[in-house]
UniProtKB/TrEMBL annotation:
<dbReference type="Pfam" id="PF13862">
    <property type="entry name" value="BCCIP"/>
</dbReference>
<keyword id="KW-0653">Protein transport</keyword>
<keyword id="KW-0813">Transport</keyword>
<comment type="function">
    <text>Involved in nuclear export, actin cytoskeleton organization and vesicular transport.</text>
</comment>
<keyword id="KW-0539">Nucleus</keyword>
<protein>
    <recommendedName>
        <fullName>Protein BCP1</fullName>
    </recommendedName>
</protein>
<feature type="region of interest" description="Disordered">
    <location>
        <begin position="1"/>
        <end position="31"/>
    </location>
</feature>
<comment type="similarity">
    <text>Belongs to the BCP1 family.</text>
</comment>
<dbReference type="GO" id="GO:0015031">
    <property type="term" value="P:protein transport"/>
</dbReference>
<dbReference type="GO" id="GO:0005634">
    <property type="term" value="C:nucleus"/>
</dbReference>
<dbReference type="InterPro" id="IPR025602">
    <property type="entry name" value="BCP1_family"/>
</dbReference>
Length: 286
């Protein structure tokens, strides 16, 4: 079902470049000729009957090279089951409830589900095999304060201003259902840059660019490590613990390697601090 309190956000303007002109049309202003289209994004409740295939695809995207190490079928089922049980979690769609989601935010109760032999336990075993620091390890094992594992998954070109409402609605829904978690673990991924990669006129999320220019006029991205989701920087700034880990089956990197180097990320954050991070997200998107 749709969420009437936030059934749609204001239309987001998406730039779409026109096709390059033919030689006989000239090339004046060709590079700056950009048209705009409007896209309406709707927030929907998680729907086990519709969202499973897209959810599995988004899980594989985040697992990247390690996608064969985790059974995403059972994990997707559990995420959707928990969404129904907790009455919490949302998807973002553009073509009605029957369409595939572009992104979603969902929570799974770690203490309740960590012994699930088919779904969550294998995923937790995968995360724990990377030897996270003690606070994250204890939370993944269901020890200590009540913990929810957050799945923030989306297509990379989804507008960032759509994300704060997902977190805001999740917090409201969890409170209404009585599931007041003390802390959260956010699972995601990031990428590393050596500062040699050219932007080719594109920016990879919020990675800063250097002032250097190549012969073709393309800038270069600054060296460093970055989350794929820019809003996670607000969460990391308030997290109790952050842990990054290499992907187990990523191919060796060399000068001929294609694409950026990726890694997994886990962040442990108190519930009150997550609320502060959401406020920071909202402020940054104004």
């Amino acid at each position: 079902m749709s969420k009437p309190q936030l059934s749609a956000v204001p239309a987001a303007q998406v730039a779409k470049r026109k096709a390059a002109p033919r030689d006989d049309e000239g090339d004046s202003d060709a590079e700056s000729d950009v048209s705009m289209i409007n896209v309406d994004f709707d927030f929907m409740n998680l729907n086990p009957d519709i969202d499973q295939i897209a959810l599995k695809r988004l899980l594989r995207q985040t697992l990247s090279h390690d996608d064969h190490l985790v059974d995403v079928h059972t994990l997707a089922d559990l995420i959707l089951e928990e969404g129904a049980r907790l009455k919490a979690g949302s998807t973002i769609k553009t073509d009605g409830e029957e369409s595939d989601p572009w992104g979603l935010l969902a929570a799974v109760d770690v203490s309740r589900c960590h012994t699930n032999p088919a779904a969550l336990k294998p995923f937790l075993t995968y995360l724990l095999s990377h030897n996270p620091p003690a606070p994250i390890k204890a939370a993944l094992e269901g020890a200590g304060p009540s913990t929810a594992l957050l799945f923030s998954l989306r297509l990379l070109n989804l507008p960032v201003p759509l994300i704060p409402p997902l977190y805001r609605m999740l917090g409201t829904e969890l409170a209404e259902s009585g599931a007041n978690f003390d802390q959260y673990i956010l699972w995601g991924r990031g990428y590393k840059l050596e500062g040699k990669e050219e932007t080719m006129g594109l920016e990879l999320n919020s990675a800063p660019k250097t002032n250097k220019k190549s012969k073709g006029g393309a800038g270069q991205l600054a060296a460093g490590s970055f989350p794929y989701h820019p809003e996670e920087e607000m969460i990391e700034a308030r997290a109790k613990s952050t842990f990054t880990f290499p992907l187990k089956t990523a191919p060796p990197r060399d000068d001929e390697a294609f694409g950026v180097e990726q890694f997994g990320r886990l962040m442990l954050i108190d519930a009150a601090k997550l609320a502060q991070a959401v406020e920071a997200m909202e402020e940054a998107c104004r």
